[in-house]
Design brief:
Blueprint (H helix, E strand, L loop, with lengths): L4 H4 L7 H12 L6 H17 L11 E3 L10 E3 L4 H18 L14 H14 L14 H7 L4 H14 L6 E4 L4 E5 L5 E3 L17 H5 L11 E2 L2 H10 L12 H16 L7 H13 L8 H16 L5 H12 L3 H15 L9 H32 L20 H18 L9 H11 L4 H5 L2 E4 L3 H8 L4 H7 L10 H18 L17 H4 L6 E4 L2 H5 L1 H5 L5 H9 L30
Parallel strand pairs: 7-8
Antiparallel strand pairs: 1-2, 3-4, 3-6, 4-5
Helix pairs in contact: 2-10, 3-4, 3-9, 5-7, 9-10, 10-11, 11-12, 11-13, 12-13, 13-14, 14-15, 14-16, 15-17, 17-25
Length: 599
Amino acid sequence: MGLKSAQVAFFPICSIEDVVKLFGSELERDEPDLTLLSLVLGFVEHFLAVNRVVPINVPGYSFDGSSEQGDESRTCFPHVDLLQIRALHARFTTMIRGAVDRSLYPHKEGYSSRELVKKVSDVIWNSLSRSYFKDRAHIQSLFSFITGTKLDSSGVAFAVVAACQVLGLRDVHLGLSEDHAWVIFGENGEETAEVTWHGKGNEDRRGQTVAAGVAERSWLYLKGSYLKCDRKMEVALMVCAINPSIDHHTDSVELLQLQQHLLWLLYDLGHLKKYPMALGNLADLEELEPMPGRPDPLTLFHEAIASAKVYYNNEHIYPYVYLASFFWRNRNVKDALVSWGDAATVIQDYNYCREDEEIYKEFFDIANDIIPNIIKEMASAIEASEEHGDGETEGQHGCPLSNTALQDPESFAQLLRFYDGICKWEEGSSTPVLHVGWATFLVQSISKFDGQVRHQVTIIVKDTESNEDEDQHSDDSREARRRGPRRESKAEEPPLAKKFQPEKLMERRRSAPSQRADPGPVPVSVSTPQALTAPTGPCVTFHSEKMKGMKELLTALKINSSAIKLQLTAQSQVQMKKQKLSSASDYTLSFLKRQRKSL
């Protein structure tokens, strides 16, 4: 079955508007043609980024110059001919239908079988070139697959789904995390199957489920809170996968504009509401070149975070990283630290595995490059203003108005929250996270905050060890005999009520920062010296054992760098939490044996 007459009517395609019209028409159908759309995008990307030649006086090409005379930043758009796209489309569909005999793989209750999905992935996998650099740019589309037999990791997964659509398998869709893709199928997408590789390795896990990765609580599989795509979200994926880079220093303006227009089309149709990373991508494009009458980037970043909270149990990291990067680019250090702290708070509930190297590098760059350089820059600016200024740049509290983050206890509290999340991430993980490099930059960063500023932060230690021990050892008969009464009686014990009262105070303050100076709540907390300072400054709750051990060191007037480095790089003494999912705690993923990608 070739292209339909309604599809043929959109050719030739000579502009961004023509591509948008084609996508709009396909998105109105229940089953947009993934093969056609991917071929068109791949064709355009190839001639605008890979083999870019600016045509002059060549018939069949659209060329629009800039309105300003003498401006060399001209834009061009290739001529997408029907004959070329039709031939590529026929070649892909013929290859798939000729290689897969559906009669050999009967449907089970109307749904695809694992064997059939595995067969389709075999066809795609075996059609790839045997040797090529799999991380190169511009090999994510079916155009690259048909013309060069090359695909990147996510491109293979997309090609499998497109091939299944060619075969009429409507229940086969993409499952997406923030750094990996696989296939979901069956009733309500309950079945999963690996169809591609991840990272530098080419381990063949095709056909296996992703249940092991979910049970390991690795970020790569988002603890099961991944995107279960429909056809419209799969179209959004191919749009997000557009790579506008011509080289390391230059992007194609035409591809950026095309991606922006297509994402707005998907946004208007409601197909991005469950796709946080696509919303973040759109926000980045709006920051580069805002479109009139559209929401501002900050609104879109917050929509991405709201999407992750509503649909994915707040298990996604990148919406917070995108927002922090936006604040950082706009020199809003305070809010950037808050967003980085939020990202670390999410990651602390995962276990670090070697396949999580991308998010590790993200946090490594933030902790050991971005934050230290920001703080160093602010400290240098403060020193310069003190040397050359006459006090006019200082606010009412003696703080430089343009560099208030180093004089703000709340910013220091957010920095501590960020590191606490990283340390908690390491606990219970099979692979260590922190090393001496992390400790060096931690000491460097916190030392730039004045001792009086650090001393204003109230650190609350969340002691959950007793509860965890009871959960883990409740089956121990000796412990049961020694405890006597059942746990229902715990609510009546006064010490626990006192223990949790400061945490409630901290939570109320976090949700309502304007009430931070209110000394009214928690009369019982007066019994502890720590609670006496709570009304005068921000609070931060430590969950990790390493940060709990550094509680006094971090707020001391003088930094003991050696003690902090020893504590941060010490081997975690927290035992791995027992998994409640069958024998998942004893199961080690085979790909954990690979070496971590160099940083």
